[in-house]
Amino acid sequence: MSAEVATFAATMKAATFRAVAPGAICALALVPAAALGAQETAVPGVSLGLLYRNIYVPPIAVKPFAVESPGEEALGREIEMIIAQDLDFSDRFLVRDSLPTEFSGQGVQYELWEQFEVDWLLAGSLAANPTGEGWVLTLEAHDIVYGSLQDRGTFPIPESGSASFRMAVHTASDAIVEWVTGEVGIAATRVVFAMRAFGEQRGKELYIVDSDGENLRRLTWDQSLVASPVWSPDGTRIAYSSWKAGSARLYERHLRTGADRALVPEGAGQQLTPTYHPDGGEVVFAVIGAEPRGLYSYDADRNCCLTHLGGGAYHDISPGYSPDGSEIVFMSNRLGVATPQVYVGKPVRGNVPELLSPYRYGDGGYFADPDWSPTSSRVAFSGGIAQRRQANRYHIFVADVERGDNWLVQLTQEGNNEDPSWAVDGRHIVFSGRRDYGSGVFVVDAITGRTRVLVANVEAADPDWSPILADGTTR
Fold first, then answer.
1. Are 465 and 423 in contact (CB under 8 A)?
2. Which of 92, 94, 256, 369 is least buried, going by the fewest C-beta atoms within 10 A?
3. Does residue 442 contact residue 433 with C-beta atoms inside 8 Å?
4. CA 226 to CA 253: how far, in whole Å?
5. CA distances in angstroms from 218 to 139, 227, 255, listed in the order given
6. Per-residue pLDDT band at 354 (split at 50, 70, 90)
7. What residues contact 10, with CB distance under 8 A and at least 6 apart?
8. 59-181 CATH
9. How far apart are CA 15 and CA 364, in angstroms?
10. How distant, in Å, are the alpha carbons of 95, 314, 416, 438 from that of 431?
C-alpha cells in the first residue's frame, strides 16, 4: 500500500476517538427490555429509528423427499438439508425438524400437518433426468392453513460432485422463498472478500464463498495486496484494486474465463474502491496520489472516457450507486481528516453533496464504507462512536436517504464491525468483524438482528455480496 493511502486511512481512524464526545449518538436494537433502561436514548439532533422488530415467522416443515430408486436416499437427504438450511438462513421461516415418522408417508394430509403446528409444508421428489445428465428435483409448497397447493416447480440438478451442484439446489431454495413470500431469495449468491492467503505471511488475495459459507476458494494469486472487490450487476465480473504492479490499479476478473484485465489507464494515481453503475457499463472509483484527486468514472465497456466527478481538495472514496443509478453515496473527509463522514450526491461534476451520516460540531465520529441497498433508500455504513466502549471499535449502521440524518439504526452490538454490503434482498448485510472469540465474515438480518458467521477464523476485509447467480461457474 502506498504511503499516502496508508497514512490517510490510519490518520482518520486514529484521530477519530480523540474528538468524539460521550453520548453523541445512540441507536436501539432488539434487546431485552431490562437492557434498554441502561442505554441513553435522548440524543440531540438525532431521532432514533428501531429497525429490529418482532415479526411473525411462519413455521415450515420439509417432508422427506421421495426418490425414484433405492440408493438415491443419501442424495435426496443431502438436497433436503441444503434447502432446509437455505430457508433458515433466509430468516423468513421457522424450519421444523424432528418430524414424526407417520408424517413421512405418501401424500399430504393437511389436517395432520396442522396438528404439527406448521403453516407451510415443502414436499419434494428426485428422479433421474431423462437427458441422462443429473437429476430432476420436483418441489411443492403447500399452504397448510388454507389446505391448498401454493406452487409447484421442477429444477435440474447436476451430479453431486459437480461444481454447480450446490448452486443449483440454492436456486430451488430461492424459488420456494419467492413462492411463499413474493420476495427474492439470497441462497443462489456468493460473497467475495479480501484476506491473507492461507499459509502466507503478507499481502491479501481475493476469496469467494457461497451464501451458506460453503465452497470457500481462492480467486487471485497476485502475491500482493488486493482490496475493495465489487461484483458487476450481472454477476460475471469482479472489479478490485491490486498493488501487483507496484501501485494501486483497478482490475477486472471475468469469472467464467478466469482472465484479468487492467480497467483504467496507468498513471491515473492510486485507483481505489471501485463500484459498478447498475447497468454494468461504467465504473466509478476513487483516485488519490494524483491531481485532481476525488471520484472518477470510466466506461468499462468501451475502455474510454475517464471523467473526474469531483473531490479536488478532499479525499472522496468508497462510492456506491443508488438502485436507479441517479445518485451515489461516498465517504469524504470534507469535515476534517479526523471526522470522515458519509455523503450523498449526483454523480456529476459540480454537484454539491449532502451529509448523510450524523455529525454535530465538536463530537467527531468516523463513518465509512457506505453501501446503498439495492431495494430501497437505505444506506449501510460502519461507524466509530466512543460511547461506553473501547476506542477503535466500529459498528454497522443504517441510515435512510429519504428520511435524512434524523434516522439512524445500529445493527451490531459487540466487537469491531466494518465493510457492510447488502444482499440482493435488501434485508441481509455481510460485513467483516472481530469478536473476542475470533475474526471472520458475518451476516446480519437487518429486520430481526439475527447474526451468523459466514466464514470463521479469518482476517477478512471488504466483503461484497453478489447478485443472484445464474450458474455456479467460477474460475
1. yes
2. 256
3. yes
4. 12
5. 33, 14, 12
6. very high
7. none
8. 3.40.50.10070
9. 9
10. 25, 26, 10, 14
Spatial strand order in the sheet of 366-372: 47-48, 404-410, 394-400, 378-384, 366-372
Euclidean distance between CA atoms 416 and 275, whole angstroms: 24
3-50+186-465 against 59-181: fold identical: no
Report the C-alpha dihedral over residues 218, 219, 222, 225, rounded to 10 degrees: -80
The whole-chain average pLDDT of the chain stands at 84
Asked if residues 439 and 450 have their Cβ atoms less than 8 Å apart, the reply is no
CB 250 within 8 A of CB 239: yes
430 neighbors 445 (Cβ within 8 angstroms): no
User: 186 CB contacts (<8 Å, ≥6 apart)?
Assistant: 89, 90, 174, 211, 423, 424, 425, 428, 465
Distance CA 17, CA 384 (A): 8
Q: Distance between CA atoms of 204 and 194, rounded to whole angstroms?
A: 6
Three-point CA angle 370, 235, 427, nearest 5°: 45
pLDDT digits (tens, 9 = 90+) for 363-393: 667 899 999 999 999 999 999 765 434 566 8
Backbone angles phi, psi at 179, to 5 degrees: -60, -45
User: How far is residue 289's CA from residue 272's CA, in Å, rounded to a whole number?
Assistant: 11
| CA–CA separation, 191 and 185 (whole Å) | 15
**Fold observed for domain 3-50+186-465:** Neuraminidase (2.120.10)
Burial 156-193 (b: 16+ CB within 10 A, else e): ebbeeeeebbbbbbbbbbbbbbebbeeebbbbbbbbbb
pLDDT digit string, tens, across residues 91-147: 999 999 877 666 666 678 898 888 889 999 999 999 999 998 999 999 999 999 999
Predicted TM-score (pTM) of this structure: 0.88
- Give the domain ranges of the chain: 3-50+186-465, 59-181
Task: Say what the pLDDT of residue 42 is.
Answer: 31
Under 8 Å between Cβ of 51 and 447: yes
Confirm if 126 and 68 have CB atoms less than 8 A apart. Answer: yes
